[in-house]
Amino acid sequence: MDLQDPVIRSMASEQVKWTTITRTCGELSVSRAIGDRDFKGFTRRRMEAGTRGVPPENPALFLWPQNHSGEFYDDLLVAHPDFHEEEITDEDQFLLLACDGLWDVLSHGDAVKHTLELLDQGLCAQGAAQQLCELATRLGTSDNVTVIIVSLHHHPPSPLMPRRAA
């Protein structure tokens, strides 16, 4: 769905309702194609278009939005990724990729700020990524943490940690 298209955006605003639950059924915070089979298979072999999905055997395990029937018209997770393109400019310094273990405890702005500070201190991308993982752990993340920083400018390799003056 291209929400940049004004017609689609207008039509979507009539259909889309926002909730404060940021996880699939209050449990899964990211969508992925592999695994998480509890969130798939709600639509056992549809015989005809529009057949309602079958809710899980124990719907009490899921945190449903208020007034939700617990029935779905399709699987909750799909293997079709969303893509977003950005033109990289000379001002762009790095690409920060991380899983929800980081984003659960650090805002996007704070993550960028910390990354800039770490790189300015002389750490290489790998060292800065390692430090962000450790920061997420100190901030109390309860999930696994993966961080990858891709430098968009060619820099000679540097040590993981800057050298201290003697």
From TrEMBL:
Domain PPM-type phosphatase, residue spans: 1-152
Top-rank lineage group of the source organism: Eukaryota
GO molecular function term, any single one: protein serine/threonine phosphatase activity
InterPro entries xrefs: PP2C, PPM-type-like_dom_sf, PPM-type_phosphatase-like_dom
Pfam families for the chain: PP2C
PROSITE patterns for this protein: PPM_2 (PS51746)
Protein name: Phosphatase 2C-like domain-containing protein
Native source species: Tribonema minus
